[in-house]
Hints:
9 strands; 4-stranded antiparallel beta sheet; 192 residues; alpha+beta; globular; single chain; 6 helices; 5-stranded antiparallel beta sheet
Amino acid sequence: MAITPESLLTLEAYARCRAAERPAIAAHRRLRSVQLTEHLLVQFEDERTVRHQIQEMLRIEKIFEPEGIQQEIDAYQSLVPTGRNWTATMLLTYPDATQRREALRQLIGVEDRMYVQVGATPRVYAIADEDLDRETAEKTSAVHFLRFELSDAQCAAARQGAELRVGCDHAHLVAELRLTAGTAASLVADLG
């Protein structure tokens, strides 16, 4: 379902249902989150998570005018999977400021070394930060937006139950995890 201004709740309607919806959206987000390392979290997005993010931003910013609503939709719409890809928000979390500064310096380019793998097919490396460049010559950002474009064969293999993995092969961060059955099923549902 496409996210349009008409498909969003008004600020008043959202305020009425927000408290009741929070546990369900939190559980849905947890299902789609992969803690790749102690400091690297990958949150796979879908229409539900993006819709929630837009509603939250409209609430926080008290946006009710059509132009502002459309700007929020435009800012997040690219994170909704198309049926042939997976999208994700990648978060690098370091509570200690000194450790964070050093890690972000060492991890320049990490977003381009993130991948998914469907069964025995080749790795699919992320297309990262299409909206704007999130790193400088001195450091990378703590947040990146990723898109993984799958081939027809990869989509079919995923739908047929192939093992799904997410990983990173950056020189300073090497990790790979097999997705749990629940997370894999949730991602396969994105494949139209």
